[in-house]
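Hi C.,

You asked whether I'd gotten around to modeling the 332-residue construct. I have! Everything is below, sequence then structure, no commentary in between.
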Amino acid sequence: MPQTETPAPGVEAVPRTRLRWWTELPLILLVYGCYSAGRLLARGDVAGAVDHGLALLRAEKLLHLNAEHPLNRLFTREPWIGVPADFWYASLHYVVTPAVLVWLFRTRAQHYRAARTWLMTSTFIGLIGFTLLPTCPPRLLSPGHGFVDTMAHYSSYGWWGGEASAPRGLGGMTNQYAAMPSLHVGWALWCGVMLWRHGRTRWARAAAVIYPLVTALVVMGTANHYFLDAVAGAAVMGLGVLLAPSVMRGADRLWASLGARLAVLPGRPGDARSPVVSGGCQTSAGERIPRQREARSGPGAEPGAAPTDAPDGATAWGLPRSGEVESLGKAR
């Protein structure tokens, strides 16, 4: 059923029809395609990416925030932790986020548009970060820095190879230097917020906390991101939620402008320039049949009959006009 939003005082209510999956799915695929293509094209130079990665590592050591090394050693030493972590990193990013979107669309439709806009806005901000600040992840630094690529270390357990989380042989189609910010963490945080706000069970609330927290540990333990990458991913989501209302208002104005332009196209209702399509058979205010005046002025019509119609439509049915009635009374 159509849904309406409560208008602000003094503003006319404008009904908003419910979003449809056949319009939402292409939009989401388009945004994700832009995101993937942008990551692929914004590779940057390797030397600059390595410099950025080392700068982050030095900053973390200076601030005593270097949690990547102990986590990475744990994941490498304990396969029962490292292998599930690699599956977590390679899979849930692409499964949980779409699942939460579908859940919102089907069961929390009144919140879906704002949530989707927040996610997409933050994704595009992350893409800007990949472009301006290509960053080498810990796993691609030289071995002297003490990191082990767990995706390569446990590659025999999964479908991925030694190049990020891409399937074997497709690593060249990904940008391995798109580490800053971590959208693995950002998207997981978005999922957590949605589950916490709109979930109605204890399990949903528990998942809202566990999923983003474990994702942050996984991205560092697998040596795919620095701690500051995770912080930047959360910051990107914060900026996205602030910009989302403005993005929605801009989209509304755009659609309203497009609708107004389409409304005045030739042949559409309400267009002053619309051509007459009655084939020349126009009717006046008192006529109900085209060419009625022609019929009245033909054979059998009264001599001197005027082609105009009385306001009350009397002559349209062959009755005398009010003036003619008065003249007939005087004559008698």
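If it helps when you're writing up: The chain has a mean pLDDT of 76.

Thanks,
B.
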